[in-house]
């Protein structure tokens, strides 16, 4: 099969391929970029594989960077663009089911492709758009099937993360996982424990944000793979619940995590524990805490202006994203409109600050000033007082008098 019209990302890269070929080596586009071109979805990066060894690649171009030279990857800089070029390789020494430290460079494309994870990722394309399909990846793309290349056990032993990648692609593309590939995940699931949490995290979030998360989640659940993710051993019930909802999609990692924590019935404290076990960023952690709090409050009562103010618009929208999956979503524009009506959005917008209070009340700094400011902030947000300097200072005087009595 020949692809007639290549996306623009390939145009400049073709020059690079040609240069390698002119020097007597083979060079192809490989992996995700070929898959995504065939699927007609936007590409993020264009990977090149070659029979030239890293040192040989370096000799062909003026400006190169040794990105991962021990793994065969050299970055070529050309007209301000970066191209990752990786020598054909087989991963000879496997350590502990992780990506091997050592790779063996080979001159044959076939050797390289047969060590790739999935048939849809083992396609190569030459400079003319001709697709090289040694493992029936084209048929699998057409039939919407995720299948390991060759023996799935071998592929998952080479790198156990591939099991997560398999379920992630099922979700991302809305493809079915082929039976023997699925069975091999069930059999090898515990190998996932060998994989760094950070790498699992990437696949897990991509799974949740895919086109049909329930497809990926079903495989993740059925194979028992979930049990080997951090603190997920008891999350089968949550996964089942997610599978019972009508079809859904999620747009943000924040919304996805909050949904998961909420369905798990986690408190802010236990949600924190979970996200920390997953090595989530502090920023993500804080956002999920705020968003989870909103969902919890909404279970009991209508949100007050103060609740909305404390959460901020982003978290309100993340909470709505999670609520939508659970069939309790509202109109996002209406949420934003309601939020816009708040008299102030942050403490900075309050017509007075701590310094004003100290000055006007002629008192020494103390925690009392902070409390007073909190009170005034709350009164303004909830509409009890207008956000006007004179009014707030007067209210501060009255509050201080009451405080002293
Ligand atoms: N554990 C892995 C990771 C990657 N690959 C191979 O390396 C290519 C590039 O990997 P990567 O960029 O991580 O994934 P993509 O398939 O390109 O997917 P994405 O769209 O997420 O980048 C894959 O297509 C696949 O051929 C693999 O065989 N085993
Ligand atoms: Mg990629």
CATH classification, class level of the largest domain:
Alpha Beta
Q: Write down the overall geometry.
A: elongated
Could you say how many structural domains there are in total? 4
Query: What name does CATH use for the topology of the largest domain?
Result: Beta Polymerase, domain 2
Work out the radius of gyration: 28 Å
CATH architecture of the largest domain: 2-Layer Sandwich
Strand tally:
11
Question: Into which percentage range does the β-strand content fall?
Answer: 5-15%
> Which ligands are bound?
cytidine-5'-triphosphate, magnesium ion
What oligomeric state is this?
single chain
CATH superfamily of the largest domain: Beta Polymerase, domain 2
Residue share in helix: 40-55%
Binding site for ATP: 32, 35, 116, 159, 162, 165, 168
GO molecular function: ATP binding; CCA tRNA nucleotidyltransferase activity; CCACCA tRNA nucleotidyltransferase activity; magnesium ion binding; tRNA binding
Catalytic activity: a tRNA with a 3' CCA end + 2 CTP + ATP = a tRNA with a 3' CCACCA end + 3 diphosphate; a tRNA precursor + 2 CTP + ATP = a tRNA with a 3' CCA end + 3 diphosphate
Binding site for CTP: 32, 35, 116, 159, 162, 165, 168
Q: Can you tell me about this structure?
A:
The chain is α+β, with helices and mostly antiparallel strands. It has four domains: 143 residues, Beta Polymerase, domain 2, CATH 3.30.460.10; 101 residues, Hydrophobic Seed Protein, CATH 1.10.110; 93 residues, Methane Monooxygenase Hydroxylase, Chain G, domain 1 (Up-down Bundle); 54 residues, Serum Albumin, Chain A, Domain 1 (Orthogonal Bundle). Helix content is 52%, strand content 12%. It has a seven-stranded mixed sheet with strand order 3-4-5-2-1-8-9. A hairpin with a 2-residue loop joins β4 and β5. α6 crosses α8 and α17 packs across α19. It is elongated. The mean pLDDT is 95. Bound molecules: cytidine-5'-triphosphate and magnesium ion. Magnesium ion binds next to loops.
